[in-house]
Amino acid sequence: MLIAQQIMFLIAFAAAVYFFAKKAGFIRKNILLGRDVELNDRKDERLRNLILLAFGQKKMFRNPLVAVLHFFVYAGFIIINIEILEIILDGILGTHRLFAPLLVGLYTFLISAFEILAVTVIVGCAIFLARRNMIKLKRFMSRDLDGWPRSDANYILATEIILMLLFLTMNAADLALQAQGAEHYHTTGRFAVSGLLSPMFEGMSTGSLVAIERVCWWLHILGVLAFLNYLPYSKHLHIMLAFPNAWYTPLEPKGKMTNMPEIQREVLYAMQPELAANAPADAAVPKFGAKDVQDLTWKNLLDAYACTECGRCSAACPATQTGKKLSPRLIMMKTRDRSEELGAFIRNNKEGSTTDGKSLLRDYITEEELRACTSCNACVQECPVSINPLDIILQMRRHLVMEESSAPQEWNMMFSNIENNMAPWKFSPDDRDAWIQS
Amino acid sequence: MQVRTMADYMASGETPEILFWVGCAGSFDQRAQKITRAFASILDKTGVKFAILGKEEGCTGDPARRAGNEFLFQMMAYNNIQVLNGYGVKKIVTTCPHCFNTFKNEYPELGGSYEVMHHTTLLQQLIDEGKVRLKDGGGFKGKKITYHDSCYLGRANNIYEAPRKVLEVFDAELVEMKRCRSNGLCCGAGGAQMFKEEEKGTTRVNFERGREAVATGANVIAANCPFCMTMLTDGVKEQGREDDVKVLDIAELVAASME
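^ inputs. structure came back:
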């Protein structure tokens, strides 16, 4: 019997890890569809960002109450992984509470601490569910989330509550079994939360208690494994990608736009033609700006996969707030959707074609959205996981203007004024110092 | 007031302490010209040896770059850097946060490295050094002032305190808008929006900001950017409060209160 359980566990565990690894590999490839960019300098500053932003969740604390709740859920999730480790080892080895005899009193303390965290996770998730579904916070009600994204959030929160309840019930049944002196269930001492619940099970037979304990154990671990495989399809992937994203956060001031050396070179040759003679002749015609996900950087695509769809960016965006079509959250969600679509196309296309005739621009993101951005950096400031929607918008604007010559008439006038009069307005450059006299 | 150009200084064999980069708005926009004159008069009164480029100045290229026209930006940058380096400019002050941001963050990579200051930071320094002396409380007794953070000074470059420090010297009550500092709401002009019609929405960004500024009950909205100036002035007008709520640049506030 025990052997059968071990084999079943091993199969479930191996399958879960296999499918997760396969999907993770696809996501990695999808992210690497983006252009290469070097982002590994200044390691001490990056380490600082990783610790403050990802581990410390510094930016979440711009909204302290929510930050505390989120921290409960986060800490519960991270720390309970130690408990999961024991469950996995028990599953493979056919043991029960493997660590208990090794740690003795410390074990009771640790499990009690996990149980308290489990309660805080339940409280946190319950309040988050209420915020989404009863209080109806504006940024969760927005059209951005219509359909799957909204239910995705609810599934995650509900699953987390169920997993924690299973964990607590399992421990409560275990304590009741210990009280009955059931074989296999050695004493661990009373746990903080399940100790309060175990009296409910007092009158039950050993057989029923074992059944409850086993069912909870199996549902809990299968739930965790299923959840692991749900992650890559969900916004919940942020629990993993927030960490690399914090590490690769740009360290430059927010106002700095990325330079385009290829264009800088062109301008240099135009201004100093004598230098052009030394220019490498092999240079392929570069693409200017971004039309599709391959033209963005891998960091832009990592951003898209790290997005939690919390909507703080859009709630702070002046365009979104004044009813424009632009929503930075949607920019990120659409970028992710497009990466998924193109990634799947390339995988399934045996002839090796890397284009399906669609593009991020227009099939996903419209010109109107791109035009509405004031480059104010509010979205960048707000994002708790260091996503930069502005960078994507600006790269796509470059494509529109330089590859398609697509700009509003007023902008074209501004361009020609700058070019001819050295100012965005049509004044004579000779009047530039007229303010002294007037 | 005497304003000399870099060329004047060079001809007389002298070197100014600092280049005052006036910017396109500061040069041509009638409202912004007043800011330029106010700031130049402060520099003049405090004895700062400053120069302008005059006719040799050209747009930094910021709006072109943000609109997506990198070619044009690079061309403007190339020309400006040639001029600045030609005069051996070390230190620049500007009344425009967009020019400030471009010089500080974007020109170094293209060969133009300077010590760059926004005028509010320089004003704070001049006040700290005791060079700017104000008439009794600056004539703002019993008045309320609210400060609008421009995105390109605030979020883009993390300068939130210097302008507020300047305002503290006035004998006035300082009130904050609901969205201030890193939560500040854009005026609606950045990213080259100044130069085109806004996209369709439920309202305009500057109307939203104007409403918020007026709601503080302030008599003065202090700005630090010529584009914010235009947008906020329109926003206050939309509220029908242009007679009792003034939008003024921090340089204008200081200039009007100096001994």
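Chain A has two domains: 2-31+63-247, 261-275+286-424. The radius of gyration of chain A is 28 Å.
thumbs up if we can close this ticket
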